[in-house]
Model the fold of this input.
Amino acid sequence: MHIAEGFLPPAHAIAWVAASAPFVVHGVRQLTREVREHPESTLLLGASGAFMFVLSALKLPSVTGSCSHPTGSGLGAVLFRPPVVAVLGTVTLLFQALLLAHGGLTTLGANVFSMAVVGPWAGYGVYRLARGLGARLEVAVFCAAFVADLSTYCVTSVQLALAFPDPVSGFLGALGKFGSIFAVTQIPLAVSEGLLTVLVVRLLLQS
Amino acid sequence: MNGIPVDGTPSPLVALRGVSFGYEDGPLVLEGLDFEVCGGRALALLGRNGSGKTTLMRLLGGGLRPRSGRVELAGRPVSYDRAGLTRLRTTVQLVVQDPDDQLFAASVAQDVSFGPLNLGLPEEEVRARVDEALAALDITGVGDRPTHLLSYGQRKRAAIAGAVAMRPRVLVLDEPTAGLDPEGQERLLATLEALRGGGTTVVMATHDVDLALRWADDVALLTPGGVRTGTAGEVLARTDALAEAGLRLPWGVAVAAALRSRGAAPAGGVAPRTAEELARWAAEGGPSAAPAG
Amino acid sequence: MNGIPVDGTPSPLVALRGVSFGYEDGPLVLEGLDFEVCGGRALALLGRNGSGKTTLMRLLGGGLRPRSGRVELAGRPVSYDRAGLTRLRTTVQLVVQDPDDQLFAASVAQDVSFGPLNLGLPEEEVRARVDEALAALDITGVGDRPTHLLSYGQRKRAAIAGAVAMRPRVLVLDEPTAGLDPEGQERLLATLEALRGGGTTVVMATHDVDLALRWADDVALLTPGGVRTGTAGEVLARTDALAEAGLRLPWGVAVAAALRSRGAAPAGGVAPRTAEELARWAAEGGPSAAPAG
Amino acid sequence: MLSIDAAAHSSRWRRRHPVDKAVLGLGLTLLAVVLPPWPGAALVLVAALALLLGPARVPAGRLWRAYRVPLGFCVTGAVTLLVRVGGPDLVGLAPDGAVRAGELLLRSSAASLGVLVFAFTTPMSDLLPRLVRAGVPAAVVDVAVVTYRMAFLLLDAVRQVRQAQAARLGHTTRAAAWRSLGGLGATAFVRAFDRAGRLQSGLAGRGYDGTLRVLVPPTRVSGGFVGGSLALLVAIAVLGTALEGPLS
Done:
């Protein structure tokens, strides 16, 4: 779930743009270098972006019965590395904001930070860690997708709690509120995304 | 063939009765359509691109639900709940034109096993059906290959095998010969003949009037005004109806008509259906020396 | 038509001389192939799936480089540096079968502008070429539509427009009529005739022997043994050669031959190329009453 | 996805330069966020609705279908502001909760409409190639162009495969649904990269060297339209600020 247009106060919106910017700029530099060195990679990167876009449009059968979509950032990070995903994720979020009214332009910085920066890096980190500890590929991929999905929503909760602290208990109380609404219902979905990612990777390895 | 069957006639396997359909808020693609698939007949569905052939086939297979009118299975209206759809889908299987839209598993055998597994059949039965379907489509040898490494013709056969493994009574194929070379087309037609011999009713959408004349018992012509159904010989001799559907006369029909109009051939009789038949027909001045089949 | 042209004959626009090609470490797809495209002739390329038609067309367009042998442009070997490739691409343009393999841009006009921009032409010249190409393909009205909202036929035309905007002397089309309904095929053939009228040489790969007989001046038949080239009437009357390429005789040729062999028609003469011609031909016992064209 | 995109292509403001529409639409969004929600965002909301349904002639049904997406999130998010946690009785209604939730709802829905003014009138095909001139690196724009085109191809493919799966009873049981979903994800991947490879050879003949140059239609920024837009924005800003005191 992306933070909707206009949901964050201006100062927060700007702060999250500033927080995401270094990651996206780093990703753009890497991508530009990649394209300069291997011109044919434009099409492959475009294909990666389209794959992530379509993956995030699949409907997950969720345990809670609500309809939800995978973030795709865990699988994306494992397949294409986090810096590239920062750029592809930004492009995807821009398309979603303009074509689906999903997310927003004023909240782009915040959504990029949770979905295209923290999620992919956390997922990728867990993947490397699990592989380093000798876990099977499928286990590592599951952990990557699970952690990427869940960390994305935790960051979203933090972003909302910072913007809308509880009148009594402040940031922590608000974190509890948003956390329980978004992140807790998100755990079964994170499991679902993990399972889906394993299924996809298994099929890809077989073919 | 439109309308309600006369008493005593067996119900068609599947039928559309006064069906209208349009996509989302769009205009109607089909309006008040009556259409029947009768057991044992080879039916060719003709019409220009955009005439609604694919929509009609999806309605038959339960992939789309009519806006009004009803779809009937063995004379009874289809219910669109889980049980009703399962009944429809185990009777009618649709194979779309592009095999890549139908193949999604890692290997051919896995893909073919998808339907039977979803039927909840025991593993042995699934295996048996997969083997049978691969054999019927003559692709046993590539069962364990990944689908995207197959040739186009093989992918086309794999997609059909996936439908055949559901053991449908009616197999509906959208342009099955498109993209195949002439040899591939002949092989596929032979395969379809074998399936028909095994009791499967085959419906095929095509643009090829010569193929329709040669292969089909019945032809349904989809025009803006509705559907015109009849035996292949009847429908494919109607210049006006064919023109309305954006089609020309088959070679055999055109030449036979020209010869007849000049008195160079007797009236009546079956039009020649292949180039060889036509050559004999033209040489011998009529159908007499050209035994059907 | 194989081999080096006799002195005095103008060089073919583009030619393969003893070309062999195989993908990566795979076996050879083409071996020692000689092939010529002569200015002003309509050339149909026939052969079964997998016979190397697409490979041959890619070699002509510079998309592939021969393993041995050479590609010649107006009698001189092509060099595969930037200047050489640009020269080849402004002479030969290939349109692949699936338009979605060629359309990348968000709108039709943008896609068509891609090639001319890569030639380094000034913006005004590019705009003129885009307009001209859209007009030639009769899709001016959809120039600013997004590619994904077009029909298949329109996408096919958009892909051809992208090649036409390069103003090639030779336009090579892989199965251009595949997937179109008969009306769409007729419209496309009319468009190709107009392009030929404007001086473009057209090469077309197809499986349709009847189309080849009707449309082509020359036919190149790709068989495992090599390529057999000649006028359409010559090559498409050779039952053995066609069978080797997995093809049948065209309807007109088959019927004419049958009538001739029975003495019902005089020997020689051009075989009828359309069903109408054939009907007249058969009715009147020969080509006499059927003026060509 | 298709609905807004398709509407943008047949929009009445299609021929206007994207900058025209960006000044107006994104300007409204900016005001919605910056101005005090009451009455500032309310004014933006009314203005945006009037523009969309009036001169831009966006069909109301289409607009509603696009608009209810962000609205769902806004409502869920705003509800949390009604509640307070902590204090003596742990959970209760937040003081001013209704006002804060209402303000948030107003701001967020007005901001969404501003973006919709832009999105419903500006197709991606007019926007993406121009981003290079706006300073976005060409390589990123090229990747975005391919992503856009290929996303539609893939979405279509995924839809077709889903239908084929349904025909073979792929949605009847939970196990079947998972099998189907895994197949969809893997198919999307294989198809995306297969398509990239084929596009590569399809573009080679037209001189593809890694850069996807295209020509955009020669449209000019309209001084009148931009001026009018700015005047409207200033009027809303002034009115919103001036009325803040009296109305609250």
Summary: The first strand of chain B starts at residue 14 and ends at 22. Chain B touches chain D through 29 residues (CB under 8 Å).
